[in-house]
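Re: beginner question about structure tokens

> Can someone show what the tokenized structure looks like for a real chain? I only ever see the sequence side.

Sure, here's an example I had lying around. Input first:
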Amino acid sequence: MAYRYKTAIKKLLSLLACLSVLSAFVACTPSSSDTDETLTGEKILIKAGNSTFTATLADNETADRFYEMLPLTLDMSELNGNEKYFYLDEALPSQPYQPETIEAGDLMLYGTSCVVLFYETFSSSYSYTAIGKIDDAAGLEKALGEGGVTVSFTRVSDAESGGDSHSSQTDEDKNPDEGNKDETVGQGVPDNSEDQSGADEPGNTGDVSEVTVMYIYINGNRLMVNPAENSAVTALTDILKKEDIICTVRDYGGFEKVGSLGHTLPTSNEQITTEPGDVILYQGNQIVLFYGSNSWSYTKLGKIEGYTASELYELLGGGKGDMQLRLSLA
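And the corresponding structure tokens:
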């Protein structure tokens, strides 16, 4: 009898222990309301070309702030054959997490100012903050097309009331970075050489620049650039003879600073494995300063002289964030 009693007590204690562990596990498991992927039911319209898609916003501060900014019309750039992206002028609140799998139709924030619209499903090791998701992404890839595309974001209520979307950002003065991201971020820079072929662009006649040196002023430093000899540099120096170019450059991929020149130059893209100090033209209108290395199809503008790789990393990288760059001949 005593043996049976002791056995029953042991079984009861084991059961209580299991229940305790299960309870702790449930308590530590995040509910769907704790993740950035939870949707609020708030709807917006996303238009690309002749196609309009309905999207549902996420339940977070990022989506709320994005909604307040609408309507927006953004000139989004292509990246990696799976996304379009655009850097806003202002930072949004972020709650980054690693989704592991990106799905077609996901509208995400990379960092604090880069709006990314994905049109393919793939695995990713990068972190984003969810803004929302297109309800039915069928036809999205076709609507976005190849290369850059203008995408408008509006509130459903505005559309129903006949409100017009307006362009609050322009490619020249409100899009300081259309650079590289495969970087979405982090993976590599897309090759747009087919639609940016230098041979087909006006002014790319193989002219050799007569300039012997250019200068980049950034972060309080004057960097001397030994220019390449190609039509892009010729066109760039023609602009610099009239005025300096000032733009904002942002970190990308952990190996570069990139920003919009505000001008389109002729390209002569070729496969390049960059080195620290290389000054590169990307997509015809983006200047890229490398403090690391990447291999892709670019047009070379020149090379920063007089600094070691570690010195360039300190000047341009190291997580210093956005910087203002001035390109000059003097």
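Each token stands for a local structural state, so reading them left to right follows the chain. The radius of gyration is 25 Å.
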